[in-house]
Amino acid sequence: RASRLMNGRGQKLRVSFEFFPPKTEEMERSLWEAIERLAPISPHFVSVTYGAGGSTRERTHATVKRMLDETALTPAAHLTCVDATRDDVDAVVQNYREIGVRHIVALRGDPTSGVGAHYAPHPGGYQNAADLVAGIRRIGDFEVSVSAYPEKHPDSRDTEVDLDMLKAKVDAGATRAITQFFFDNDLYFSYLDRVRARGINIPIVPGIVPVQNFKQVRNFAERCGTSIPRWLAQRFDGLDDDVATRKLVAAAVAAEQVLDLVDRGVTDFHFYTMNRADLVYAVCHLLGLRPALKEAA
Ligand code: FAD
Fold it and tell me: Membrane spanning segments where (predicted)?
């Protein structure tokens, strides 16, 4: 079993946390409770998503700005090029540069008519995620993270097309990829082998979803092409109305997945927090990550 803060090869572990911008004051309060609880773990960075079609442009910006102003965290702003001209997108990037953001998570995004609809770039916009990455790098010396799909993106004909796109994003200047969430670690490692065989050498950071709500996760998974192993469904079977047990099972499932990845050499993890701290905090604790103040004491 991996030792504290290290993987089996003695390499240091790092985590990052993803949040979404809140819609209401109540959601804002619970987001900031989660941030306050997770911040002392000293994540490598925290990221804030961008709503479909840029619908959260202002809210994403406001959340990132508040992180810069009120915390010691390093924020990364997600950005998509759906339904936007290059000038619009460039203005957002310039603005981030001016307020001191140095990391952007660059995505194509989904068509505003819904996931699964045919994607068409805006006539005056960036053509795809690789084009967007190149545009961002032209504006400033940003760290640029992009997406990666161990189980293939639903739009892709096959995995090879997917790897072509990842390669194009790296050639355009992407410095890290974060994966779509998955539950079968073997799929991640076989994907990683294919990525490396393509000569792609940036970190491919696993995206981890702690299962707060199995039904909701199953729906997300269906839309984004993540497979739900039979054992996972069985573990949550019969717990729909039993929140307390569900939470314990969810922590056990996430811990098992992450500790297995650590044992197999993974050092970086990106947690899709859903703006909730408890499960993520527990898994980080199991990884040996402790609040900075306690550690110093
Ligand atoms: P790309 O990497 O450009 O493409 C994904 C795959 O689709 C490619 O590998 C390629 O094979 C295939 N593809 C693309 N275009 C075509 C085409 N024309 N024909 C055939 N195949 C094609 N969405 C948001 O709206 N906001 C967010 O903040 C956000 N954050 C995300 C964070 C992460 C870590 C991940 C994994 C996803 C996120 N998404 C977000 C979802 C993402 O926008 C969608 O998955 C979208 O459908 C694809 O965007 P992408 O940048 O992954 O696309």
Answer: none
Q: 56 CB under 6 A from ligand 1?
A: no
Closest-lying ligand 1 atom to the alpha carbon of residue 52: 25
Ligand 1 contact via 107 beta carbon (within 6 Å): yes
* pLDDT at 295 exceeding the cut of 60: no
98 belongs to the catalytic site: no
- Reported as a single tens digit per residue, the pLDDT across 19-74 is 999 999 999 999 999 999 999 999 999 999 998 777 788 999 999 999 999 999 99
What pTM value is reported for the model?
A: 0.95
> What single string gives the DSSP state of each residue in 164-223?
HHHHHHHHTT--EEEEPP-S-HHHHHHHHHHHHHTT--S-EEPEE---S-HHHHHHHHHH
**The ligand 1 atom nearest the CA atom of 270:** 34
